[in-house]
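Practice problem: predict the structure.
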Amino acid sequence: MAKMVNKKEDHPENMSFGKSVTTLLSGSTLGMAIGFFAQLLLIHFYLDADFGIFATFQAFVMLLSVVVSLRFEDAIALPKNLQGATNVLILSLFTNLTFCIILQVIFYFFAAPISFYLKTTSLQEWFWLVPVTTFLSNTVRVLELYLTRIRSFRQISLSRIVWNIGTSSGQLIGGILQMGTMGLMGGALVGRIFSLINLSLSVFFPNRSLIWNAFEPKYLVHALRRYQRFAFFAMPAALLNALPTQLIILGLAYFFGEATVGVYDRGYRYLVIPAGLIGNAISSVYLAKASEALHHNGLDAVTEFTYRRMLWIMAFPTLAVMLAGPELYAFILQNPHWAISGQYAQWIAPWLLFITISSSLTPIFDLLQRQRLDLLFSLGAFACQMLVLWFFGTLGNPLWAVAAISISGIFLRLIQLGILFYLAQTPVQYLFSDWIPILFSAIPGLILINLSLYLPIWGNVFWGFIVGLLFFGVGFYIYNQKRKPSNSY
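Answer:
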């Protein structure tokens, strides 16, 4: 039996970094396309306030999803054998279920005071759905990490397609039926259920004997004791890392109301869909490759390669949004009203770039057992950004608040990346070594975008972006032909 397991686990490991990422991106790209075009349709069926309430709901789900399993799932990559990883899987799922039941009780009794003090009274009737959605979201993440452990990237890719199809179709049907906020939340629930069913079939049936053994109390107790550092350090650090992006939604709702959150969320949503899918695809592969490279003194090369690839992939779209965000959003959404979302996006885009890259590399803290350092940095970063949010929120201008949060967030994420590079023994100067080549490669495309704004043709800025992206791709090719690759990952 052990030999059979090893064969299953070893075969996918032969996949290169690029092939593994391509496998995940194939599903991610299709999922992104489905989700992106669905969002274009949703604006015709829902109000700004509907999007604002749903964004606030999602913020609660995202924050609670970080804590309910105490981040035990991050230890799935560490055991040397699959039985050990399966033990951690069951521990994570059990912890997730237990805490979500506790949350359900808390929201049942305290939904009214929570919504009152956070000024989210419109969300009060939906708080009962938060623990359910949190349980589904976290369970999907746990199962994806287990499939990453066994290098089953195709199943993860399929799961993300199913998630987006379920969510998009559910929300569109809800919009057509004029269900309001209920349609948005119902669609999100359907997508998670579809994804969970798909992942469960890929995890539980092929590994049922390992899973059955993992229910032995002694195995669960052993996993709990061995990886308790994840609960004490990795979980609080992950929560503090997630808080700024989600608390800005809660903060905007508190200071400016749900309609403002809805407009901000449109600016954020059209950026986070592609950034999140690309980041998740690369981080899944990075976790698998980094855990393997750690034992062969190759963590520095994998980290450098991953950082540079992500920076080049995301750089030009980020710069384009910073240059012409309002015009791009007005064209894509076919409504000048949404140009204000593009103004938010101009500030969100660079912050989101560094969030995506640094989040993909944070497994370094877990692999090197440096969760305490992760927690200390996250505490300082959280305190800094909360101070910025409070100060600029009281000034009464939501755009100023978003801009200030973005600038401080970029600075803090660069510090975090420097720490991660230091731990991985990757020269810190590599953080900035590609910035000038990227800028020179982007200049022709950015000039085209700027000139396209004055062309009297339909979709001028969009076509300028497409042609500019092609020019940037040529620049990327030329630069990488001249530069010898550091590794074959």
